[in-house]
Amino acid sequence: MKALGMKITIITGLFVLGILLSGACEKMNNRVVPVEKNQLFNFLISLGEKHAFTPEILTSLTGLSLTDDPFPNKHFSVHHSLGNTAKGHPFIKKVELRSPVEKGNPGGLIILDLCNTSHITGKDVVKRFGEVSDLTIPSPEQPEEDPVFLVYKYGWGELGFGCSRDESDSLVSVVLDAYESAAFKEYKESNTTPGVFE
């Protein structure tokens, strides 16, 4: 009986040890690694320069799977990421893409919710990109978690960095806006369809 009890104790101990080791391995595999700030900044610039305002190009550049919004808008289509499947871009938490329905319309909007970027601040953004073109501050009526946006203008549109309003000044989101591009403004001026941009 003593031998049987000893065997059960050893087996139970080995089983518990196995569970603990597998949990430790899983934690190591899922360890959060802060993204290198220049890698993130370069990636964001490339999204604008490569005009990633279509589901196909955005999927190709990010590796994310996108799904259509079930409630389409008559002016633009909306696509959302299906969770972060982009192993090469661990800083992407969620993506929303709004691309125009009209053929030939060069506009578009990409909204990126970020993760693993709490160490990157508004000061880092200004250090890399220089003086901001525009500063968008939420109104008092907006939720406290809405960030301040540091906006930079490019030929392809605007790149806005959303930084938290608390003392951490952490980078939490990014918006790429091709509706502010020179090409879109030309398109809008030449488009005579009433009500398209209302």
Please explain how this structure is put together.
The protein is α+β, with helices and mostly antiparallel strands. It has 2 domains: 1-31; 37-190, no CATH class. The protein is 33% helix and 24% strand. The protein contains 5 helices and 8 strands. Strands 1-2-3-4-8-7-6-5 form an 8-stranded antiparallel beta sheet, with helices on one face. The radius of gyration is 23 Å and the shape is globular. Mean pLDDT is 82; it is low at 10-30.
List the helices and strands and how they pair.
Blueprint: H1 2-29, H2 37-49, H3 55-62, E1 66-68, E2 76-81, E3 92-100, E4 109-114, H4 122-129, E5 134-136, E6 148-154, E7 157-163, E8 171-177, H5 182-190
Antiparallel strand pairs: 1-2, 2-3, 3-4, 4-8, 5-6, 6-7, 7-8
Query: Any idea what the shape is?
Result: globular
What is the count of distinct domains? 2
Q: Quote the beta fraction.
A: 15-25%
Largest sheet: 8 strands, antiparallel
Helix run count = 5
Q: Give the tally of β-strands.
A: 8
Helix content: 25-40%
If you average the pLDDT, what whole number results?
82
Taking all Cα atoms into account, the compactness measure Rg is: 23 Å
Straight-line distance between termini: 85 Å
Low-confidence stretches: 10-30
**Estimated structural class:** alpha+beta
User: What is the helix/strand order?
Assistant: HHHEEEEHEEEEH
Neighbour order of strands in the largest sheet: 1-2-3-4-8-7-6-5
